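cron nightly-structures :: item 1 of 1
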Amino acid sequence: MRRQPTKVLALPLACLAVAVASQMYAQISPATLSQANTDLENGQADTAIALLAPLPSTGDGAAEAQNLLCRVRYTLQQWSQAASECQQAVNLDGQNSDYHMWLGRVLGWQASHASFLSAYGIAKHSLSEMQAAVKLNPKNGSALSDLGDYYAQAPGIAGGGADKAQAIASQLDKVDSARAQQLRGDIAMAKKDYTTAENEYRQAVAVARKPADYWSVLANFYRSRQQWSDLDSAIQGCIAAAAKDKNSSFALYDGAGVFIAANRNPALAAQMLENYLSSSSLTEEAPAFIAHIRLSRLKQQLGDAAGAKSELAIAAQMAKEFNPAQA
């Protein structure tokens, strides 16, 4: 008697096909993406990862989810993982300027931490992504700024060049004049033309819509030149400008970082970080868990051991994967 072909695999294969189809056409809720973005802005890295990691890798919203996960990894300084997530976002939506910008940005940091043999290739990939971001959206101020910084800092063999950076500064003039002036200051710094650099950074403060951010840039310039009284004045300018604009609290984080790097005025640096953390405008540019770690060190320095321990515990609850030594 002729045997019938087995049908044992038919049901599992059919279920697999349905599962694959469901994955392909899955839609990620905009509310989920919005919550993940809020967690990212608030420095809640663990919560954001828990929300984003299980999401479908294809379908509506997947590219944005991958980009958000990349940016969370970026705040954790997990360069390789961040690059992989950002690459996924670009693969899913290659026409999004911001996705290319973030991939280029992450690759730049990855290159700076890579071995000599691999750094060059990663840097070139970073450059190509930055260029793609600007090509897709010539009015993307953040992408232009990143590309200009690359040109200003990188050697010619890696695609850098002051003339290229100056061309980007001219493009930025039409998009964000303060960023254009800052870039010109960075170009002058690369040339060790410190007088021009100071003038350009001061001009950035003068034309900026959010001058607090550029006061902190100017303060960092003075730190690099060990002009301590000028640094103190610039920080006061930063604090005063931030007090007038609730959306400029990032400058408090940045300015505190300048004081910390200069090993100067820990009490004021601690106050600036506390004001940042209590503000309503936390940002991924200034991860809250890093702010808590830095505040912990400052409190320890100021003799508040209990406060230092508390700040460190808060940071650990927000980002258990982050190594405090990197803050």
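cron nightly-structures :: done
The CA atoms of residues 182 and 201 lie 5 Å apart.
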